[in-house]
Amino acid sequence: MFKTKITEMLGIKYPIIEGGMVRVGTGELAAAVSNAGGLGMISSHDYPSREQLGAEIRKTRSLTDKPFGVNVGFWPTLSDLDRGGLVDTAIEEGIKVFETSGHIVEDDVKRIRKGNVIHIHKVARLRDARTAERLGADAVTIVGYECGGGAPLEEITTLIQVPQVIDAVKIPVLAGGGIGDARGFVAALALGAAGVVIGTRFMLTQESMVHQSIKETLVKAQASDTMLVQRSIRIGERVIGNERAQNVLAMEEKGATLEELLPFIAGGEETRRAWAEGDFDTLLPCGQVVGLIHDIPTVKEVVDNIIKGAREIIGRLSSLAAPD
Question: Which residues make beta-bridge pairs with 242?
């Protein structure tokens, strides 16, 4: 096992956490990650009622006896999402780990912490990492420009984001963005991270609900096939550069208003249907690490390969550090 502050905090074998992926973060995928030795994460936004989320948590618990968490995003949405109710439901169901993202305030953290849980907050800026620590988060995830979904508009890579946050906060730091194999895993640990957050690599596995046709298309993609949209509304999102994404970017460059953009970026049920049915013509979050992914293995194979490869890399590096 790899022992770090985060494995000790979460009670997991390996410091590998499934990033909260809206429309993809099902109980089946979460259970597979947890069973493989990491920490799986259910996306609460896919189960917007308290009854739905409770049922998904119970289903996940029937698939694994290992720890898993719930992701709650505090981003602006068009729907009236009862985030507080979802938090309360997860606590009532015995969830002990929350991953949050977006704009949290003190009341949000207090509500989460009342369940005596571990709270990990995901950010894309140094100043937000400091805020998360001040508000009482137990750990923080910092993502680089490479990451799929919400990426930093400042275009700062993971290689820089991670050490600057580690230097600025005292709580454990997780690294996200561009990590999908043993090389990225070891690099993150070398930077000082207590663990890694992985999204796209877990999305392209056998247990993922994403339609096989989309998986097969994405394993042929290059890192340059992703792009960042929604800069104009200050909520950057890295997606696969399909026709929809190209059109959204063109609209933004022409000065489109939020109202004009909404029909093309709203997501919701359209994105869920696209992932499930293989419709490639919508905004599909995807990280640059897709350029390093060329197969569709099981989650266990992904984790096992990361750990096996990491041990080999560390052994090779150790041999390079011979005494003078």
Answer: none
Domain-located, residue 121 = yes
Q: Which of 101, 166, 184, 183 is nearest to 130 (CA)?
A: 166
| In the predicted structure, residue 77 carries a pLDDT above the cut 80 | no
Q: Is residue 98 part of a domain?
A: yes
Average pLDDT over residues 65-72: 97
Q: How is 103-145 classified by DSSP, letter by letter?
A: ---HHHHHHHHTT--EEEEEESSHHHHHHHHHHT-SEEEEE-T
Q: 257 in a domain, yes or no? A: no
Cα dihedral: 186, 188, 194, 200 (round 10): -100
Place of tokens 């096989």: 212
Q: Which residues contact 18 (CB under 8 A, 6 or more apart)?
A: 25, 29, 30, 33, 38, 39, 40, 41, 197, 198, 199, 202
- Which has the closest alpha carbon to 238: 246, 229, 247? 229
At 307, list the tokens. Answer: 């750990």
Could you give the CA distance from residue 87 to residue 70 in angstroms, rounded to a whole number?
A: 9
CB 165 within 8 A of CB 129: yes
Give me the CATH number covering residue 65.
Answer: 3.20.20.70
Q: Vertex 53, ends 51 and 57: CA angle to 5°?
A: 115
Structure tokens at 155: 């275009």
Q: How many residues does the chain have?
A: 324
Residue 81 in any domain: the answer is yes
The count of domains in the chain is 1
Ranking 16-25, 76-85, 176-185 by mean pLDDT, the lowest is: 76-85
Task: Give the pLDDT confidence of 205-245 residue by residue, as tens digits.
Answer: 999 999 999 999 999 999 999 999 999 999 899 999 999 99
The domain in which residue 137 lies consists of 5-210
